């Protein structure tokens, strides 16, 4: 890797409930970055691309210092997944399916989002950009996507070594009996490369140069989802460094109808400030017209951030912190009743609402018993005793220890 590529760009991810204006916030931030002399790339992981519409341009260099990239799924799929897809297509053909059906079946669900992550990694490693802005899919899809690299790592570490041994033993029998092709080393190698690439994506997006910005509108349903999203992003180890409230009615000169909206939004904004503190809450007023094009978006960016530096290092700590005898995980907004903690072998399983994360403990902590756990002030603290574990359960045993979270 070149020296230029060793310097990671500032990576900003924008997500929120569908329809809250996250694409506008992302495009405005990217345009502002370019206007301030930063080499900026703006990309989307949302299959419903709308960045080009917001900027009113085609992909490419859309303004001085600002590049818009739109994923070409078909070309990228062949480059990242070609060997695996070719093997699956050939296997289905050998089993009697026609070529067209085999082609359709091997189109990967969610491939476009995964490819977008892989291309994001390549852009970050190129050393060509100071800032990369990512317009993410709505929150549910984004959470599934961001959880993918670690979840895949968990499965691969357990299945791939076993799978390699089985295939070496079974390949002659598979070819001789079933008359189908066993995957060769190049196919398994392609899977391993994809696995490593996704781990590098996670390392990039949980690193010191990356953060997420939550976009919301001052509505009760949207605010409730944004709170849950903050908890879930922290659970998976992603830093949220700001919240953006979009489409806020200005208070001055309001008629009776608009005054009611102003009052309702004011109450919800105060609630949002309390819910997300100490994160900054940036406000974008309800504009008289939709901001389309670089000039309009740059003006939105200026109003959005004011005197703040939106491109400096994130000022929030990593959500997951480990010390010699304690694990801390920030879970802001989580209720004690919806957080569950379990120990299985060398892993700690943390559940917050509908989301679960399996944490592989470092060796120093994996050898020790859990002394206690508590969720206080939005932080889950798990204390480990000084003595080594006795009778530790293994992942294959099917049993787990459930330390009480007080």
UniProtKB/TrEMBL annotation:
PANTHER family: ARSENICAL PUMP-DRIVING ATPASE ARSENITE-TRANSLOCATING ATPASE (PTHR10803), ATPASE GET3 (PTHR10803:SF3). Belongs to the arsA ATPase family. Residues 10-305 form the ArsA/GET3 Anion-transporting ATPase-like domain. This is Arsenite-transporting ATPase. Pfam families: ArsA_ATPase, ArsA_HSP20. InterPro entries: ArsA/GET3_ATPase-like, ArsA_HSP20-like, ATPase_ArsA/GET3, HSP20-like_chaperone, P-loop_NTPase. Residues 326-384 form the ArsA HSP20-like domain.
């Amino acid at each position: 890797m070149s020296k230029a590529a060793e310097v990671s760009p500032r990576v900003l991810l924008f997500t929120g409930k569908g329809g809250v204006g996250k694409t506008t916030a992302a495009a405005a931030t990217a345009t502002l970055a370019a206007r301030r002399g930063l080499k900026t790339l703006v990309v989307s992981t949302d299959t419903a691309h709308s960045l080009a519409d917001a900027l009113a341009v085609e992909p490419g260099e859309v303004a001085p210092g600002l590049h818009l990239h739109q994923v070409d799924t078909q070309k990228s799929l062949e480059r990242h997944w070609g060997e695996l897809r070719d093997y699956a297509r050939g296997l289905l053909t050998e089993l009697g399916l026609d070529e067209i059906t085999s082609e359709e079946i091997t189109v990967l669900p969610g491939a476009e989002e995964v490819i977008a992550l892989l291309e994001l990694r390549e852009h970050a490693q190129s050393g060509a950009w100071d800032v990369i802005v990512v317009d993410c899919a709505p929150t549910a899809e984004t959470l599934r996507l961001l959880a993918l690299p670690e979840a895949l790592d968990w499965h691969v570490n357990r299945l791939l070594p076993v799978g390699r041994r089985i295939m070496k033993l079974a390949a002659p029998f598979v070819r001789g009996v079933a008359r189908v092709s066993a995957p060769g080393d190049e196919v398994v190698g392609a899977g391993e490369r994809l696995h490593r690439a996704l781990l590098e994506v996670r390392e990039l997006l949980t690193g010191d140069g990356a953060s997420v910005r939550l976009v919301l509108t001052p509505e009760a349903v949207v605010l409730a989802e944004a709170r849950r999203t903050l908890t879930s992003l922290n659970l998976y180890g992603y830093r949220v460094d700001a919240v953006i409230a979009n489409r806020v009615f200005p208070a001055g000169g309001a008629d009776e109808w608009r005054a009611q909206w102003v009052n309702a939004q004011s109450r919800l904004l105060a609630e949002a400030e309390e819910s997300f503190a100490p994160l900054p809450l940036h406000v974008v007023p309800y504009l008289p017209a939709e901001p389309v094009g670089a000039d309009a978006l740059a003006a939105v960016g200026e109003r959005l951030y004011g005197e703040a530096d939106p491109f400096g290092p994130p000022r929030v700590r990593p959500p997951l912190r480990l010390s010699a005898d304690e694990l801390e995980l920030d879970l802001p907004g989580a209720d004690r009743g919806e957080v569950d903690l379990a120990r299985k072998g060398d892993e700690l399983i943390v559940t917050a609402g509908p989301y679960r994360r399996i944490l592989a403990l470092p060796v120093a902590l994996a050898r020790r018993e859990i002394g206690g756990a508590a969720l206080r002030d939005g932080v889950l603290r798990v204390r480990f005793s000084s003595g080594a574990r006795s009778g530790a359960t293994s992942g294959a045993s099917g049993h787990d220890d459930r330390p009480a979270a007080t």
